[in-house]
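Acetoin utilization protein AcuC
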Amino acid sequence: MKNAVFIYSKEQLSYKFSDTHPFNHKRLILTMELLKNIGALSDEDIIPARMATEEEIRLVHDPSYIEIVKKAGQGLLTPEQAEPYGIGTEDTPIFPNMHEASCLLVGGTLQAVDYVMEGKSRHALNLGGGLHHGFRGRASGFCIYNDSSIAIRYIQEKYQARVLYVDTDAHHGDGVQWTFYDDPNVCTFSIHETGKYLFPGTGNVSERGNGQGYGTSFNFPLEAFTEDESFLMVYEQALREVIEYFKPDVLFTQNGADAHYFDPLTHLNASMKIYREIPKLAHELAHEYCEGRWIAVGGGGYDMWRVVPRAWSMIWLEMTDQPIPTGNLPDEWLNKWQKESPVPLIPTWEDPNPLFEPIPRKAEIEEKNAQMLTKALSIIRSEKNSGL
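Predicted C-alpha coordinates:
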Protein backbone atom coordinates (compact mmCIF):
# COMPACT_ATOMS: atom_id res chain seq x y z
CA MET A 1 0.00 0.00 0.00
CA LYS A 2 1.25 3.47 -0.89
CA ASN A 3 1.25 6.12 1.81
CA ALA A 4 -0.29 8.74 -0.49
CA VAL A 5 -1.00 9.49 -4.15
CA PHE A 6 -1.10 12.88 -5.85
CA ILE A 7 -3.81 13.10 -8.53
CA TYR A 8 -2.97 15.42 -11.42
CA SER A 9 -3.28 15.73 -15.19
CA LYS A 10 -2.30 18.80 -17.18
CA GLU A 11 -5.75 18.59 -18.80
CA GLN A 12 -7.21 19.72 -15.47
CA LEU A 13 -5.97 23.19 -16.41
CA SER A 14 -8.67 23.30 -19.11
CA TYR A 15 -11.14 24.28 -16.36
CA LYS A 16 -10.60 27.96 -17.09
CA PHE A 17 -13.18 30.73 -17.27
CA SER A 18 -10.88 33.48 -18.59
CA ASP A 19 -7.43 35.01 -18.14
CA THR A 20 -8.81 37.55 -15.66
CA HIS A 21 -11.15 35.31 -13.64
CA PRO A 22 -10.08 34.85 -9.97
CA PHE A 23 -10.42 31.05 -10.20
CA ASN A 24 -7.21 29.99 -11.92
CA HIS A 25 -5.92 26.42 -11.92
CA LYS A 26 -2.40 27.55 -12.76
CA ARG A 27 -2.10 27.24 -8.98
CA LEU A 28 -1.95 23.46 -9.53
CA ILE A 29 1.29 23.86 -11.50
CA LEU A 30 2.69 26.37 -9.01
CA THR A 31 2.08 23.95 -6.14
CA MET A 32 3.34 20.87 -7.96
CA GLU A 33 6.55 22.58 -9.08
CA LEU A 34 7.19 23.91 -5.58
CA LEU A 35 6.91 20.38 -4.19
CA LYS A 36 9.15 18.99 -6.93
CA ASN A 37 11.74 21.72 -6.39
CA ILE A 38 12.13 20.72 -2.74
CA GLY A 39 12.28 17.03 -3.64
CA ALA A 40 8.96 16.23 -1.95
CA LEU A 41 7.04 14.99 -5.00
CA SER A 42 8.22 12.51 -7.63
CA ASP A 43 6.63 11.38 -10.89
CA GLU A 44 5.97 7.99 -9.26
CA ASP A 45 3.65 9.72 -6.75
CA ILE A 46 1.47 11.24 -9.49
CA ILE A 47 -1.62 9.40 -10.71
CA PRO A 48 -3.42 10.88 -13.73
CA ALA A 49 -6.96 12.12 -13.27
CA ARG A 50 -9.60 10.20 -15.19
CA MET A 51 -12.75 11.51 -16.83
CA ALA A 52 -15.90 11.00 -14.76
CA THR A 53 -18.69 9.29 -16.67
CA GLU A 54 -22.06 10.93 -17.19
CA GLU A 55 -23.60 8.24 -15.00
CA GLU A 56 -21.26 9.32 -12.18
CA ILE A 57 -22.14 12.99 -12.65
CA ARG A 58 -25.82 12.00 -12.38
CA LEU A 59 -25.21 10.66 -8.88
CA VAL A 60 -25.79 14.27 -7.80
CA HIS A 61 -26.64 16.42 -10.83
CA ASP A 62 -29.90 16.52 -12.77
CA PRO A 63 -29.68 15.08 -16.33
CA SER A 64 -31.29 18.21 -17.81
CA TYR A 65 -28.65 20.39 -16.13
CA ILE A 66 -25.86 18.21 -17.52
CA GLU A 67 -27.31 18.72 -21.03
CA ILE A 68 -27.32 22.49 -20.47
CA VAL A 69 -23.65 22.41 -19.43
CA LYS A 70 -22.78 20.38 -22.53
CA LYS A 71 -24.63 22.72 -24.88
CA ALA A 72 -23.12 25.81 -23.25
CA GLY A 73 -19.61 24.39 -23.70
CA GLN A 74 -20.35 23.68 -27.36
CA GLY A 75 -21.45 27.27 -27.98
CA LEU A 76 -25.09 26.24 -28.48
CA LEU A 77 -26.58 28.41 -25.73
CA THR A 78 -26.65 32.14 -25.21
CA PRO A 79 -25.70 33.44 -21.76
CA GLU A 80 -29.36 34.41 -21.33
CA GLN A 81 -30.47 30.81 -21.89
CA ALA A 82 -27.81 29.45 -19.57
CA GLU A 83 -28.16 32.00 -16.76
CA PRO A 84 -31.13 30.32 -14.98
CA TYR A 85 -28.77 27.37 -14.45
CA GLY A 86 -26.08 29.57 -12.89
CA ILE A 87 -23.95 29.47 -16.05
CA GLY A 88 -23.04 32.50 -18.13
CA THR A 89 -22.93 34.66 -15.02
CA GLU A 90 -20.07 36.89 -13.89
CA ASP A 91 -19.05 34.23 -11.35
CA THR A 92 -19.37 31.19 -13.62
CA PRO A 93 -18.99 32.28 -17.26
CA ILE A 94 -19.34 29.93 -20.22
CA PHE A 95 -16.11 28.52 -21.66
CA PRO A 96 -15.44 25.94 -24.41
CA ASN A 97 -15.84 22.25 -23.48
CA MET A 98 -16.85 23.11 -19.94
CA HIS A 99 -18.60 19.75 -19.46
CA GLU A 100 -15.46 17.80 -20.32
CA ALA A 101 -13.23 20.05 -18.19
CA SER A 102 -15.59 19.66 -15.23
CA CYS A 103 -15.77 15.87 -15.67
CA LEU A 104 -11.98 15.71 -15.42
CA LEU A 105 -11.99 17.51 -12.06
CA VAL A 106 -14.71 15.15 -10.79
CA GLY A 107 -12.86 12.14 -12.18
CA GLY A 108 -9.71 13.20 -10.34
CA THR A 109 -11.60 13.12 -7.06
CA LEU A 110 -13.16 9.74 -7.88
CA GLN A 111 -9.69 8.44 -8.71
CA ALA A 112 -8.56 9.59 -5.24
CA VAL A 113 -11.56 7.84 -3.68
CA ASP A 114 -10.84 4.51 -5.36
CA TYR A 115 -7.16 4.53 -4.40
CA VAL A 116 -8.06 5.01 -0.74
CA MET A 117 -11.19 2.89 -0.50
CA GLU A 118 -9.63 -0.06 -2.39
CA GLY A 119 -6.63 -0.01 -0.05
CA LYS A 120 -4.08 0.97 -2.71
CA SER A 121 -3.13 4.10 -0.77
CA ARG A 122 -3.85 5.36 2.75
CA HIS A 123 -4.31 8.93 1.58
CA ALA A 124 -5.00 10.70 -1.73
CA LEU A 125 -4.89 14.34 -2.82
CA ASN A 126 -6.70 15.90 -5.79
CA LEU A 127 -6.02 19.63 -5.62
CA GLY A 128 -8.04 20.14 -8.81
CA GLY A 129 -11.23 19.26 -6.90
CA GLY A 130 -13.09 20.94 -4.06
CA LEU A 131 -15.81 22.70 -6.09
CA HIS A 132 -18.19 22.78 -3.17
CA HIS A 133 -20.80 25.32 -4.36
CA GLY A 134 -22.32 23.26 -7.21
CA PHE A 135 -26.00 22.27 -6.79
CA ARG A 136 -28.12 19.52 -8.33
CA GLY A 137 -29.40 21.72 -11.15
CA ARG A 138 -27.34 24.90 -10.91
CA ALA A 139 -23.77 26.12 -11.03
CA SER A 140 -22.66 28.56 -8.36
CA GLY A 141 -19.55 30.34 -7.14
CA PHE A 142 -17.12 29.14 -9.88
CA CYS A 143 -18.36 25.54 -9.47
CA ILE A 144 -20.11 23.67 -12.30
CA TYR A 145 -20.15 20.07 -11.04
CA ASN A 146 -19.72 19.42 -7.33
CA ASP A 147 -16.94 16.81 -7.25
CA SER A 148 -17.09 16.46 -3.45
CA SER A 149 -20.82 15.68 -3.41
CA ILE A 150 -20.45 13.24 -6.30
CA ALA A 151 -17.49 11.54 -4.62
CA ILE A 152 -19.33 11.17 -1.31
CA ARG A 153 -22.39 9.66 -3.03
CA TYR A 154 -19.99 7.38 -4.97
CA ILE A 155 -18.37 6.27 -1.69
CA GLN A 156 -21.81 5.48 -0.27
CA GLU A 157 -22.96 3.45 -3.28
CA LYS A 158 -19.73 1.61 -4.06
CA TYR A 159 -18.22 1.18 -0.59
CA GLN A 160 -21.18 1.61 1.83
CA ALA A 161 -19.09 3.87 4.07
CA ARG A 162 -19.94 6.68 6.48
CA VAL A 163 -18.26 9.92 5.45
CA LEU A 164 -17.17 12.94 7.47
CA TYR A 165 -16.75 15.91 5.11
CA VAL A 166 -14.57 18.70 6.56
CA ASP A 167 -14.50 22.03 4.73
CA THR A 168 -11.97 24.70 5.80
CA ASP A 169 -12.57 27.04 2.85
CA ALA A 170 -13.41 30.61 3.91
CA HIS A 171 -16.72 30.25 2.05
CA HIS A 172 -19.44 27.98 3.43
CA GLY A 173 -19.56 24.51 1.82
CA ASP A 174 -23.21 24.99 0.89
CA GLY A 175 -23.52 22.64 -2.08
CA VAL A 176 -22.22 19.64 -0.14
CA GLN A 177 -24.24 20.47 2.96
CA TRP A 178 -27.56 20.72 1.13
CA THR A 179 -26.90 17.54 -0.88
CA PHE A 180 -26.65 15.48 2.32
CA TYR A 181 -28.80 17.59 4.64
CA ASP A 182 -31.20 14.73 5.42
CA ASP A 183 -28.66 11.88 5.22
CA PRO A 184 -27.64 10.35 8.58
CA ASN A 185 -24.59 8.63 7.06
CA VAL A 186 -22.83 11.79 5.87
CA CYS A 187 -21.69 14.43 8.33
CA THR A 188 -20.78 17.86 6.93
CA PHE A 189 -18.46 20.18 8.88
CA SER A 190 -17.72 23.69 7.60
CA ILE A 191 -15.58 26.35 9.28
CA HIS A 192 -15.85 29.57 7.30
CA GLU A 193 -16.23 33.32 7.47
CA THR A 194 -19.72 34.28 8.58
CA GLY A 195 -22.16 34.75 5.72
CA LYS A 196 -23.18 38.19 7.00
CA TYR A 197 -20.96 39.86 4.44
CA LEU A 198 -19.63 36.98 2.32
CA PHE A 199 -20.93 34.65 -0.39
CA PRO A 200 -22.91 32.38 -0.21
CA GLY A 201 -24.54 33.90 2.91
CA THR A 202 -25.36 30.53 4.48
CA GLY A 203 -23.64 28.32 7.06
CA ASN A 204 -25.30 29.45 10.28
CA VAL A 205 -24.99 27.34 13.44
CA SER A 206 -28.75 26.69 13.22
CA GLU A 207 -28.30 24.67 10.00
CA ARG A 208 -28.08 21.26 11.69
CA GLY A 209 -29.61 18.86 9.16
CA ASN A 210 -33.14 17.68 8.52
CA GLY A 211 -35.21 14.59 9.29
CA GLN A 212 -32.99 11.54 9.78
CA GLY A 213 -30.01 13.79 9.04
CA TYR A 214 -30.69 16.14 11.93
CA GLY A 215 -27.48 16.50 13.96
CA THR A 216 -25.15 15.67 11.06
CA SER A 217 -24.60 19.20 9.74
CA PHE A 218 -22.15 21.38 11.66
CA ASN A 219 -21.29 24.99 10.84
CA PHE A 220 -18.71 27.22 12.50
CA PRO A 221 -19.11 30.76 11.10
CA LEU A 222 -16.17 32.93 12.17
CA GLU A 223 -16.27 36.67 12.61
CA ALA A 224 -14.59 38.77 9.92
CA PHE A 225 -10.91 39.52 10.76
CA THR A 226 -10.52 36.31 12.78
CA GLU A 227 -6.83 35.53 13.36
CA ASP A 228 -4.89 32.26 13.63
CA GLU A 229 -5.37 31.50 17.32
CA SER A 230 -9.14 31.82 17.25
CA PHE A 231 -9.46 29.95 13.94
CA LEU A 232 -7.38 27.03 15.22
CA MET A 233 -9.12 26.94 18.60
CA VAL A 234 -12.50 26.54 16.89
CA TYR A 235 -11.19 24.08 14.27
CA GLU A 236 -9.44 21.77 16.70
CA GLN A 237 -12.09 21.66 19.41
CA ALA A 238 -14.89 21.28 16.90
CA LEU A 239 -13.27 18.60 14.75
CA ARG A 240 -12.22 16.48 17.72
CA GLU A 241 -15.75 16.54 19.13
CA VAL A 242 -17.53 16.01 15.81
CA ILE A 243 -15.42 13.05 14.70
CA GLU A 244 -15.79 11.36 18.09
CA TYR A 245 -19.58 11.92 17.88
CA PHE A 246 -20.03 10.74 14.26
CA LYS A 247 -17.34 8.01 14.02
CA PRO A 248 -16.86 7.98 10.24
CA ASP A 249 -15.29 5.27 8.09
CA VAL A 250 -13.46 7.81 5.92
CA LEU A 251 -12.39 11.44 6.25
CA PHE A 252 -12.89 13.70 3.22
CA THR A 253 -11.39 17.20 3.51
CA GLN A 254 -11.86 20.25 1.31
CA ASN A 255 -8.85 22.56 1.62
CA GLY A 256 -9.67 26.01 0.31
CA ALA A 257 -6.76 28.38 0.95
CA ASP A 258 -8.73 31.62 1.04
CA ALA A 259 -8.84 32.33 4.79
CA HIS A 260 -5.40 33.95 4.50
CA TYR A 261 -4.98 37.68 5.10
CA PHE A 262 -3.75 38.17 1.51
CA ASP A 263 -6.82 36.61 -0.11
CA PRO A 264 -8.67 39.25 -2.15
CA LEU A 265 -12.17 37.75 -1.81
CA THR A 266 -12.50 37.20 1.96
CA HIS A 267 -12.06 39.08 5.25
CA LEU A 268 -10.27 36.62 7.54
CA ASN A 269 -6.81 37.40 8.95
CA ALA A 270 -5.21 33.97 9.03
CA SER A 271 -1.58 33.30 8.17
CA MET A 272 0.35 30.31 6.87
CA LYS A 273 0.23 28.92 10.40
CA ILE A 274 -3.31 27.54 9.96
CA TYR A 275 -2.28 25.72 6.77
CA ARG A 276 0.34 23.81 8.71
CA GLU A 277 -2.15 22.81 11.39
CA ILE A 278 -5.28 22.01 9.32
CA PRO A 279 -3.85 18.92 7.57
CA LYS A 280 -1.88 17.89 10.65
CA LEU A 281 -5.04 17.40 12.72
CA ALA A 282 -6.91 15.79 9.81
CA HIS A 283 -4.06 13.29 9.39
CA GLU A 284 -3.98 12.44 13.09
CA LEU A 285 -7.74 11.90 13.28
CA ALA A 286 -7.91 9.90 10.05
CA HIS A 287 -5.54 7.38 11.62
CA GLU A 288 -7.32 7.46 14.97
CA TYR A 289 -10.86 6.94 13.62
CA CYS A 290 -10.70 5.84 9.94
CA GLU A 291 -7.76 3.42 9.70
CA GLY A 292 -5.92 6.21 7.90
CA ARG A 293 -8.49 6.69 5.12
CA TRP A 294 -8.15 10.35 4.12
CA ILE A 295 -9.18 11.90 0.81
CA ALA A 296 -8.32 15.57 0.30
CA VAL A 297 -9.27 18.05 -2.41
CA GLY A 298 -8.44 21.70 -3.10
CA GLY A 299 -11.03 24.46 -3.24
CA GLY A 300 -10.85 28.25 -3.04
CA GLY A 301 -7.71 30.33 -2.88
CA TYR A 302 -7.43 33.48 -4.94
CA ASP A 303 -3.96 34.73 -4.10
CA MET A 304 -2.45 32.00 -6.22
CA TRP A 305 1.06 33.45 -6.12
CA ARG A 306 1.76 34.23 -2.46
CA VAL A 307 -0.58 31.85 -0.63
CA VAL A 308 -1.94 28.80 -2.45
CA PRO A 309 1.31 27.00 -3.42
CA ARG A 310 2.72 27.25 0.09
CA ALA A 311 -0.58 26.32 1.74
CA TRP A 312 -1.37 23.35 -0.51
CA SER A 313 2.18 22.02 -0.28
CA MET A 314 1.54 21.50 3.44
CA ILE A 315 -1.21 18.95 2.71
CA TRP A 316 1.06 16.73 0.63
CA LEU A 317 3.97 17.07 3.05
CA GLU A 318 1.72 16.06 5.94
CA MET A 319 0.16 13.16 4.02
CA THR A 320 3.57 11.74 3.21
CA ASP A 321 5.11 12.28 6.67
CA GLN A 322 7.74 14.65 5.29
CA PRO A 323 9.12 17.47 7.45
CA ILE A 324 7.36 20.81 7.11
CA PRO A 325 10.04 23.17 5.73
CA THR A 326 11.14 26.45 7.24
CA GLY A 327 13.32 29.20 5.86
CA ASN A 328 13.48 30.16 2.19
CA LEU A 329 11.54 28.82 -0.77
CA PRO A 330 13.78 27.35 -3.51
CA ASP A 331 15.48 29.96 -5.72
CA GLU A 332 14.56 27.94 -8.80
CA TRP A 333 10.85 28.33 -8.06
CA LEU A 334 11.07 32.00 -7.02
CA ASN A 335 13.12 33.01 -10.06
CA LYS A 336 10.82 31.23 -12.50
CA TRP A 337 7.48 32.51 -11.21
CA GLN A 338 8.43 36.02 -10.08
CA LYS A 339 8.60 36.94 -13.77
CA GLU A 340 4.87 36.20 -14.12
CA SER A 341 3.60 37.22 -10.69
CA PRO A 342 1.94 40.65 -10.51
CA VAL A 343 2.97 40.91 -6.84
CA PRO A 344 6.31 40.29 -5.09
CA LEU A 345 6.42 36.62 -4.08
CA ILE A 346 6.85 35.72 -0.41
CA PRO A 347 10.37 34.21 -0.39
CA THR A 348 9.92 32.16 2.79
CA TRP A 349 7.66 29.33 3.95
CA GLU A 350 6.52 31.52 6.84
CA ASP A 351 4.70 34.83 6.38
CA PRO A 352 6.30 38.20 7.12
CA ASN A 353 5.97 39.18 10.76
CA PRO A 354 3.92 41.22 11.42
CA LEU A 355 1.60 40.29 8.56
CA PHE A 356 -0.86 43.10 9.31
CA GLU A 357 -1.53 45.94 11.74
CA PRO A 358 -3.04 44.83 15.09
CA ILE A 359 -6.85 44.54 15.03
CA PRO A 360 -8.35 46.63 17.87
CA ARG A 361 -11.36 44.27 18.17
CA LYS A 362 -9.29 41.08 18.51
CA ALA A 363 -10.56 40.15 22.01
CA GLU A 364 -14.17 40.82 21.02
CA ILE A 365 -13.81 38.69 17.86
CA GLU A 366 -12.31 35.83 19.85
CA GLU A 367 -15.11 36.00 22.42
CA LYS A 368 -17.80 35.93 19.72
CA ASN A 369 -16.13 32.93 18.07
CA ALA A 370 -15.96 31.10 21.41
CA GLN A 371 -19.67 31.73 21.99
CA MET A 372 -20.46 30.51 18.47
CA LEU A 373 -18.47 27.32 19.07
CA THR A 374 -20.44 26.53 22.22
CA LYS A 375 -23.72 27.01 20.37
CA ALA A 376 -22.60 24.99 17.34
CA LEU A 377 -21.53 22.00 19.46
CA SER A 378 -24.52 22.13 21.82
CA ILE A 379 -26.23 19.14 20.20
CA ILE A 380 -23.19 16.92 20.84
CA ARG A 381 -22.60 18.19 24.35
CA SER A 382 -26.25 17.85 25.37
CA GLU A 383 -26.31 14.21 24.17
CA LYS A 384 -23.12 13.53 26.13
CA ASN A 385 -24.55 15.12 29.27
CA SER A 386 -27.78 13.15 28.97
CA GLY A 387 -25.83 9.90 28.62
CA LEU A 388 -27.15 9.07 25.13
